[in-house]
Amino acid sequence: MILIPCPHCGPRNASEFAWKGEHRPRPDPARASPAEWRSYLYHRANPCGWTTEVWFHRAGCRRYVTVERHTLTNEVRRAVPAGGER
Amino acid sequence: MTATARREARRLPRQPGEVIDRDRRFEITWCGRPFPAYPGDTIVSALAASGVRAFSRSSRYHRPRGILTASFHDPGCTVQVGGEPNVRGAHRRAEPGMVVSPQGVWPSLGVDLKAVSQLVGPLMGAGSQYKTFMKPVALLPAYQQVRKRLANGGRLPADPRPACYDKRYAHPDVVVAGGGPAGMAAAVAAARAGAGVMLVEEEYELGGHLRWGGPDELAALAQLRVEVESEAGIEVLTNSVVTGRYEGNWLAIVQRPAPGGPIEAGGPQAVVERLVKARARSLVVAPGLIERPYVFEGNHRPGVMLSTAVRRLINLWAVKPGEEAVVLTANSSGDAAVADLQRAGVEVVRVVDARRGGGIVRALGPARSRRQRAREALGGGLEAVLLLGGAGGVGGVELPGGERLECDLLVTAVGWTAPTSLLDMAGDRPFYDERAARFLPGGRLAEGVLAAGGIAGDGPLDQMVEQARAIGRLAAGQRGEVPASPREGHPALFRSSTHGMVDYSGDVSSRDLVAAVREGYDSIELAKRYTTATMGPSQGKLEVANAVAVVAEATGRTMDETGTTVWRPPYAPISLGALAGPRHEPVRRSPMQAWHEAHGAEPVVEGQWVRPGHYGDPEAEVLGVRHAVGLMDVTPRGKLDLKGPDVPKLLDLVYANRWAGRAEGAVGYGVMCTEEGVVLDHGVTGRVGPAHYLMSTTPAGEATVWEWLESWLQTAHPEWKVHVTPLTAAFASIDVAGPRSRQLMERVVEGVDLSPEAFPHMEVRRGSVCGVPGCYMWRLGSTGELGYEVNVPASYGLFVWETLMDRGADLGVGAFGVEAQGVLLLEKGHLMVGQDTDGSTHPFAASLDWLVELDKHDFAGRPELVGPGRGGGHQRLVGLQPLDPALVPPEPCLIVEGEATISGRVTSSRRSPTLGRSICLGLVAPHLATPGTVVTVVLPDRTRVGARVMEHRAHFDPEGVRLRA
Amino acid sequence: MALASSAWTEPTGFTGTGGREKDGVGSTKAESRGARLGRVARAVGEATRPRRYSAGALVAHGVTGRPWRPAWRHHELGSTYDAVIVGAGVHGLATAYHLARDHGVRKVAVLDKGYLGGGSSGRTSGIVWSNYLTPEGVRFYDRSLRLYGELSGELNFNVMFSPRGHLTLAHSDASLRAMRWRAEVSKLHGVDSEVVGPEEVRRLVPLADVSSRARYPIMGALYHPSGGTVRHDAVNWGYARAADALGVEIHQGTEVLAISTAGDRVTGVTTNRGEVSTPVVVSCTAGWASLVSDMVGLSMPIITRPLQAAVTEPVQVLLDAVVVSGTLDVQVSQTDRGELVLGASPDPFASYSMRGSLEFTEEVAGRVLQLMPSVAPMRLLRQWSGLCDITPDLSPIMGPTPVEGFLVDVGWGTNGFMAGPAAGQAMAELVATSRTPELMAAFDLARFAEGRLVEERDAAGVGH
Predict the structure, then answer these.
(1) Distance CA C350, CA B291 (A)
(2) Residue C193 belongs to what domain range?
(3) pTM of the predicted model, to two decimals?
(4) Do A44 and C302 touch (CB under 8 A)?
């Protein structure tokens, strides 16, 4: 069971979280071309290695957390609040 | 021989280390006959003490099988106990009254008609099923049926008693997997170093191989047991196994009960099996070694046993394993077995020492004269099978050079397998050590995983114990050196000059493996899959090393090059019941649900909610709302409380329409889209205070919308000042709907002016209802009638409901449920998200164009809705009426053009009592969406009917006059 | 292009086991008489050993004890091929087979970094069905299911195809509606699929709890009589053997490390065993599609998620049909040996780990027991997992890409095995003729940039 070091709650089982996907910067919808926008919607890096992604601590503090995880070993090395502290 | 004399013909006098209690004899039943047993006996040891030699028939060739290992994974000792299939008879303790029977034989163990497969055996090697029965195709089902009848599994009871399974979370610092000398020593050392320890042992008592050892071993065992018992910080689980090690030392332990009782005495119900889950800081893997069988012709015969089996039978259960034995030994376990056999009065006909070049060629069946003698004495049949292994039992052995010896017991001690499964699960890859002739842990362990005892190396007992203590201290977090384990040499003995069984459970021989390699399945993984070797109930523990050796030999590679198969969890079998645990399925009910059911409501499951479907006559409920006033429990509607100065910005972002500048008390309907421009949810949001809004969502959308709002607030706009609080469960909600609803409300509401000028349509107010303060009232008119949705603090929900029913009696008030609501909404053409929309519906398709304000600055979904997304080829949601007013098409029906081109579908369909005809909503291709078009609907019985596209989606009062009253 | 007959024919010039003449050089240097005699003797021995599998051949081999001809050979890696297929799973092998058989393109290498059929094709539960939701999906999978029905005869390898019936349970009005929707689409395309009530479910699945006491009572099911199971390893081996006999080279233990391009077209691949030049590279690499596409600088709308499965000890056969529940997120079937095979939807996060989790076995056990409470005493013996490509619309990605010569057959999610035969046939046609067959046209990569998704998300099978 993957252990996620929630910045608010400490290390918690991944089953308490909902995975929200790769962290992708959202382009400015006013300026992005349809191709760029659709790339944001659909394309993914999907690396076999370290990735930055977002989890939501559904059964805990209910905060979005940005996590660095290795997709082959499932090792987690960092978890910070997504979008900065509030 | 008489029946009584036959009883316990093979039971020895008292042995120093025996675990049976001779004072409490009882009986168990086997094949319909009673046999004596003692507490401490396993099922198989009790039967073996009475001379039983065969316990099952093999899966493919249905040959009789006897004791091989006398341990949990003895492949020939799987039996049915009462209604429980696949019981490991050489491990499960006998209990009074047990009814034991063989599995998969028909009609009996003695006369198994499936043994006919032996006739074609030589022609049907492993993998033969792929080479035949391909044609004729029509016979394939019959062939499948035959294969099924030949299958060997046990029986599940047709009418199961409910058994109790359980789960538990444990929080030990150190888990020690294996309660032999190394495990015990490590546990004690860890506990003394201050760790909380869980010691898990597969057998019913601690001790490992010490239990069947000589006086020195028994003394060491007693000492270690005292040490364990005196440490308060050690929790001991016996008859339990650490069966899985997952990321971060997340451990699964299967805990099984002590014989005759529940896992805990005094519990309310006997727990049959429990899954214990623990996140341990350290895992010490000390499972010892598993003895490996030798591959030779006839090695499957009853009477062929491993040295540890013989030692266990004699020393633990005082069972004489045979009368005349030949022993093939290559190590000290074999030597000790010789001594034990002699002590037990078994005639050791020959000791073949492999260290001095000795070997065996094949095991032979019973000599004719012996068989004849036995048959005369026993009358043949079942007895012969049971007591001799029938024609299948061992009768002799052939040595190199042709010499033949008569014996009824052939013991082998050719080496060991390290059960590295848990270590592999921790990322280790074992390597083959030529000197030790076995696979050893590779040493690349994850943090927090340690190996101790025989699995890591060899050496004398006290050295191993010292090493284990050092590991225990390390596991507890103390620094220190761990002495290296010596690796002793061992002859590499895997297969004699003949071919024999490698996988006993699957009847896979070395010949099968060699043939597979020759046919191109020449890696261990392909050979394993082709022959199914290592894929049986013993999960590879007995088979894998021999399989690797045979494949290596056949491919000309070394054992290390060949590698082993990947060990997968679970290491020990665990029941589905224990994995599932006691089942808790949350159910959500409103405070009024009991009232509904008491008044005849049919419950309807909607996600987690249970709601009233209807109260007996949904059409009457519909008419009641249209003509008088109805009450509906709409508590499951999601409610989110939004507070803060920036709420309008959030609403502008998530809704496709504009929100800024709405006055207090104003309510707006909005649709929410995903970033792909697909409808996510819809609902009304009202401003109830200067910086206070209430958002409603569909019942199914509640959780999704809350997370959606939070994702924008937390990740995109943390600078916005908004607080979101879900209030769905805080309020009970009642829809008061119908032309007389205002009259009813006037009777119960205080603090709010209900006149149509003061409280128009699409507004929200706060006041007191039935004397309960803090209630919200919304004028929404979703049913198409004048109506109020009332949100009451939940604990008063039932009171307010009953009061309304009471105060409205003379107005003709009645309850209406989900079914009637569906009809009312459909009459008004309101779309239901998830029914009239699906995963690809854009708001334009839902004909919500008027809502989508594309000149608005950024909102979720906007880029997909401007430009290419706009209108385009999306299907449109339209009102439909079948040409035949009495025909109600089922939901959904496809709308087609031509033979098979799908141009849409009917998404909602009901009979409208208000209009006296059928009404529908449907999605149609844009070119069919013009009012007046007649589309073709295909009914489930393939007939095609026409339906007309209506001018409005609402079939009743399309101008909405009634709801604005 | 000669059309082969349905029984695959021996490739011309085949002279025996092992060894392949060096490409373009003709026969090797002159050999000694002894060596030639030995070679001829071996060839005669090979030629007289029966090639075809049959009951008669089984008896003959059993009686004489002679070994069977190897199902496939080992080769040195050549320097150039007409097409290189990455991935020796069902898609790659079926594509190679059809290229050789239907189009006469035989200078084909199928490369796999592991053993053949060791990827997702070796880890699937082997359930096959065709009553999908979208018309594009139904047409495709129907073709595939029909091919499965004939595959044993076609490949001369018993793939243990068992059309035992496939049930998708509905536990709510909403899912019943979804089932009816699927049934209607299926029927319109000639696929047998109909909605049945709880009584019929009980008859087909005596183990099922159809009482109203269940937490999610069974309200009905979508019944697909032609659906069932197939032995996945046998399908892989059958295609491999047939392709090999037609001259296709299967290279196990051969990992593609890079794909070389010149401008916007493919020129070859670099592997751990050497370099190969080829104008066509076909990616059939479930789970690894993104990494292979990265090699040509192509980003994909794919995330990799593990799909787990588990198997129990055997008991007597109690379950004939395959049972799937979308609401409960579980699928269960029973093998001929009596083991229950359990599956669910892929893990809820992206990962390349195939270790398997405890959460999966706990959840799937809980769900199976909701369906069939009486199987609680059955014990789990083994769990495993394979990797899936998950696309935004749960439809595959097939066809050409902006890099000329780089073709993809990926994005199959949990339906890859089901689609293998039809995909192989279609991809082979694309490779050989450079024209995209109608059957796969809707599954092009360009649909994402153009907003033309093919939505299978509402199929309410085992959820995604």
Answers:
(1) 41
(2) 157-229+303-390
(3) 0.91
(4) yes
